[in-house]
Recover the amino acids of this structure.
C-alpha cells in the first residue's frame, strides 16, 4: 500500500518541525548554557545542623570572587531569609533540604530547582532588575506548604 | 477488517467489562467532587469544613482516583469489551474476575488510608514523605490486577491467532496490545520503586530511602503512564469515531505504525519530569529531551489520519467544499462530540507539552500552575472526555440498555470542554506568572497573591462548570444503568480502512518491537541510574507532615 501524498508531506513537515525544535534547544544549550540545574553532589541530611556551609547558611563570596548563596529548605521556610544579593552579577545558589522534597522557585524568573534531602541543587543566575522577589516552594511538602515563602532583595547598584 | 454482526450485550464478558466501567465511573464521580472543592479552595472561596489538611488530602484523593483508578479500570473494561468483540473470546475469565476483585480491594485499601488522612502524599508519593503501608500495597494490588488483565488479553490474542494464522490483529486490538506492552514497560519502574524501596521503608524494615532514585523510578513509570491513558483514546479515534461519523479509516498501515512508535518511545523520556532535579547530569536530560520530542511524531500522524478519516465521512455524505464536511459530522451524537472535543483539546495539550519538554524553557513552568493547566487538557480532557464519550457508546453495547437522558448526554461534552477551557487557560497563565501548583490558597502564597487570585477565581468558575458536566455524566450513566429501556445491544462496529491491512507487516511484530522498547529503556536509563547508585548517597528518614 502507498502512503497518500498529502500525508507524506505532513509527515515530512512534522519530522522537520521536531528536528528544528531539538536543534534550537541543542544550540542554545551549547552556545548560551541554557541548561536545567543538574548538579551532582550528595550531602548527609542528618548532619545539616553542624554542616559548615548549611548549618548556618549565609550569603558569602568565595576566594575567587564568586557570590554563593547556600539555602536550606525545610518545613516551612527557607534559610537564610531574606537573602540579599547585588544585581547584574552571577549568583550561585546551592540548595538542599532538611526534611522532605521542596521546590525553590524565584517568582518572575527562570530560577527554579528542586530541593531534595541528601542532594545539593546548584545553578547560577544574574538578576537584571533590582527589587524584592518572592521565593515560593512549588513542591507539596506538608500541610503548610502554601505558606512557605521567602524573599530575595536584589540591590540595584553595580558591584 | 470485518465486524461481527451480533452484539455481545449481557454476555459474561460484557458483564466483566461493565463491572470495570462501573468502578471507573464511581471513582470519577467521587474525584470530581473533590476537584471542585480544590478549585474553590485555591481561589480562597470559603466552604464548610475547608482547611489545609482536607485540601491536601483531596488533592491526593483526586489525583489517585482520576489518574490511577478511573483510568485503569476504564481501560481494562474497554479492553475486555474490544477483545471479546474482535477476538470473540476472553481466555481466562476466572483470572479476569480475580484481577478485578484484587484491583478493587487494593483501591479500597489505598482509598481508605487516604480518606482517613494517613496518606496525604499526592499521587506522585515522593519520599521521604511517607504514606501508610496499605497505600503502597493497595496501589500494588491495583497494578497487579492490571497485569493480569494484560495477560488475559494476550492469551486471548494467542488463541485467536491460532485460529486465524496469517491475519494481523484487528486494528482496535492492535492498539490495545500496544497499550498493554507500554503498560508492562512502564510499570516495571513503578514495581521496582514500590516493592524494593517504598514498601520495605514504610514497614520500617529499612530506616532510610533515597529520594532521587525513587523519583527516577517513579518517572520511568510516570510518563509512559500518560500513553497508557492516551493509546486507548487513539484506538477509539482511529477505529470507532470514523465509523460513527460514517467514514473510513484513512490509513490503516500508518495507524499500526503509530501504536508501535509509542511502544518504542513511551518510556525512555522520563527525565523531562526531572529537569529541575539534582543528581542527574544535563547530558542525560538532553538525551531524554530528544526522545520526548520524537514522540510528538506519532501524535502528528494521528492528527492527520483521524481528521482525514472524518473528512472521508463528510465527502461520502456529499460535502464538496474545503471545510463544509465538518458541518456534516454527527455533532449531536454525544460519543462523537466528546471524541472531537477531546481531540481539539489535545492540540492545545501538545503545544503546552512541547514547551514543558523544552529542556531550558521548562524552568519557566516547572511545578507551577501551568503544569496543572496542562494535564487537565491532556489527561483531564483528551483522555477523560474520550472515556466519557466511550462510556455512552459502550453502555448500550454491554448492558443492552438504551442511553437515557440523551439531551443531558448531548450537552455534557460541550460543558466539559467550555469548563476546561476556562479552568485550564486560567491556570496556564497563572503558572506563567509563577503561581506554584498545589496550594491551599493562591492569595496566601507571598506578595504575588493579589496578582494570582483573579486567575484562581476564574479557574474556580471553570471548575464549577466541570463539576456540573461531571455530575451530568454520572447521572446519564446511573439512569441508563438502572432504567434504560432494554434493547437488543447494538453490535460493536469498527471503521473499515480505505486500504485494509490483510497480511501482517513489520508494524504487526509486537514482540520484536517490545524488545526494541526494552533496549531503548536500558540505553536511556542504564548508565545514569547505575552512576547514581554507585555515588555515595545518604538516605532520608520518613516524614508525615499532614
Amino acid at each position: 500500500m502507498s502512503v497518500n501524498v498529502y500525508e507524506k508531506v505532513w509527515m515530512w513537515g512534522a519530522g522537520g518541525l521536531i528536528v528544528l525544535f531539538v536543534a534550537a534547544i541543542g544550540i542554545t544549550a551549547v552556545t548560551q548554557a541554557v541548561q536545567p540545574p543538574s548538579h551532582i553532589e550528595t550531602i548527609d541530611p542528618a548532619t545539616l545542623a553542624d554542616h559548615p556551609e548549611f548549618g548556618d547558611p549565609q550569603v558569602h563570596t568565595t576566594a575567587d570572587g564568586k557570590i554563593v548563596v547556600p539555602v536550606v529548605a525545610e518545613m516551612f521556610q527557607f534559610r537564610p531569609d531574606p537573602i540579599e544579593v547585588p544585581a547584574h552579577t552571577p549568583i550561585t545558589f546551592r540548595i538542599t533540604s532538611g526534611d522532605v522534597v521542596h521546590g525553590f522557585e524565584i517568582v518572575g524568573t527562570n530560577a527554579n530547582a528542586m530541593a531534595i534531602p541528601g542532594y545539593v541543587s546548584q545553578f547560577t543566575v544574574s538578576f537584571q532588575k533590582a527589587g524584592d522577589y518572592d521565593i515560593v516552594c512549588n513542591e507539596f511538602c506538608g500541610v503548610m506548604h502554601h505558606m512557605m515563602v521567602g524573599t530575595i532583595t536584589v540591590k540595584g547598584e553595580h558591584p | 477488517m470485518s465486524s461481527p454482526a451480533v452484539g455481545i450485550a449481557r454476555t459474561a464478558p460484557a458483564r466483566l467489562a461493565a463491572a470495570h466501567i462501573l468502578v471507573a465511573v464511581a471513582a470519577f464521580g467521587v474525584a470530581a467532587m473533590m476537584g471542585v472543592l480544590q478549585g474553590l479552595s485555591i481561589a480562597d472561596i470559603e466552604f464548610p469544613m475547608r482547611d489545609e489538611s482536607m485540601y491536601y488530602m483531596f488533592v491526593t484523593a483526586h489525583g489517585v482516583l482520576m489518574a490511577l483508578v478511573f483510568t485503569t479500570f476504564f481501560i481494562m473494561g474497554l479492553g475486555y469489551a474490544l477483545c471479546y468483540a474482535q477476538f470473540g473470546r476472553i481466555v481466562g475469565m476466572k483470572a479476569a474476575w480475580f484481577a478485578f476483585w484484587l484491583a478493587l480491594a487494593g483501591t479500597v485499601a489505598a482509598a481508605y488510608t487516604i480518606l482517613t488522612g494517613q496518606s496525604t502524599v499526592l499521587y506522585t508519593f515522593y519520599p521521604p514523605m511517607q504514606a501508610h503501608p496499605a497505600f503502597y500495597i493497595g496501589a500494588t494490588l491495583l497494578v497487579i490486577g492490571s497485569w493480569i488483565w494484560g495477560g488475559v488479553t494476550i492469551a486471548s490474542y494467542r488463541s485467536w491467532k491460532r485460529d486465524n494464522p496469517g491475519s494481523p490483529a484487528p486494528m482496535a486490538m492492535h492498539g490495545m496490545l500496544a497499550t498493554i506492552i507500554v503498560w508492562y514497560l512502564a510499570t516495571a519502574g513503578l514495581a521496582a520503586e514500590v516493592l524494593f524501596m517504598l514498601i520495605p521503608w514504610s514497614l520500617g524494615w529499612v530506616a532510610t530511602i533515597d529520594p532521587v532514585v525513587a523519583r527516577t523510578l517513579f518517572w520511568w513509570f510516570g510518563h509512559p503512564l500518560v500513553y497508557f491513558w492516551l493509546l486507548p483514546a487513539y484506538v477509539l479515534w482511529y477505529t470507532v469515531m470514523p465509523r460513527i461519523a460514517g467514514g473510513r479509516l484513512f490509513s490503516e498501515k500508518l495507524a499500526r505504525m503509530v501504536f508501535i512508535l509509542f511502544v518504542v518511545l513511551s518510556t525512555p523520556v522520563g527525565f523531562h519530569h526531572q529537569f529541575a532535579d539534582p543528581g542527574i547530569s544535563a547530558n542525560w536530560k538532553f538525551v531524554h529531551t530528544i526522545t520526548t520530542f520524537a514522540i510528538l511524531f506519532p501524535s502528528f500522524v494521528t492528527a492527520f489520519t483521524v481528521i482525514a478519516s472524518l473528512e472521508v465521512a463528510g465527502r461520502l455524505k456529499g460535502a464538496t467544499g474545503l471545510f463544509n464536511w465538518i458541518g456534516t459530522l454527527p455533532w449531536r451524537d454525544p460519543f462523537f462530540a466528546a471524541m472531537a472535543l477531546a481531540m481539539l483539546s489535545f492540540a492545545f495539550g501538545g503545544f503546552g507539552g512541547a514547551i514543558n519538554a523544552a529542556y531550558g524553557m521548562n524552568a519557566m513552568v516547572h511545578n507551577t500552575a501551568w503544569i496543572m493547566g496542562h494535564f487537565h487538557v491532556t489527561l483531564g480532557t483528551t483522555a477523560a472526555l474520550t472515556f466519557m464519550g466511550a462510556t455512552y457508546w459502550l453502555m448500550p453495547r454491554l448492558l443492552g440498555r438504551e442511553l437515557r437522558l440523551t439531551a443531558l448526554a448531548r450537552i455534557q461534552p460541550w460543558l466539559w470542554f467550555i469548563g476546561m477551557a476556562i479552568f485550564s487557560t486560567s491556570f496556564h497563565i497563572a503558572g506563567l506568572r509563577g503561581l506554584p501548583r498545589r496550594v491551599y490558597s493562591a492569595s496566601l502564597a507571598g506578595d504575588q497573591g493579589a496578582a494570582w487570585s483573579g486567575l484562581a477565581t476564574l479557574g474556580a468558575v471553570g471548575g464549577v462548570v466541570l463539576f456540573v458536566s461531571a455530575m451530568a455524566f454520572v447521572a446519564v450513566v446511573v439512569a441508563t444503568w438502572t432504567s434504560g429501556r432494554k434493547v437488543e445491544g447494538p453490535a460493536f462496529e469498527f471503521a473499515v480502512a480505505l486500504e485494509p491491512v490483510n497480511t501482517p507487516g513489520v508494524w504487526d511484530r509486537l514482540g520484536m518491537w517490545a524488545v526494541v522498547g526494552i533496549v531503548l529503556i536500558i540505553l536511556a536509563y542504564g548508565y545514569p541510574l547505575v552512576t547514581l547508585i554507585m555515588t555515595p548517597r545518604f538516605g532520608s528518614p520518613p516524614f508525615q507532615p499532614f
The mean pLDDT of chain A is 94. Chain A touches chain B through 65 residues (CB under 8 Å). DSSP finds one helix and ten strands in chain A. Strands of chain A lie at 60-61, 67-74, 77-79, 83-86, 90-97, 102-106, 112-115, 121-126, 131-136, 149-155.
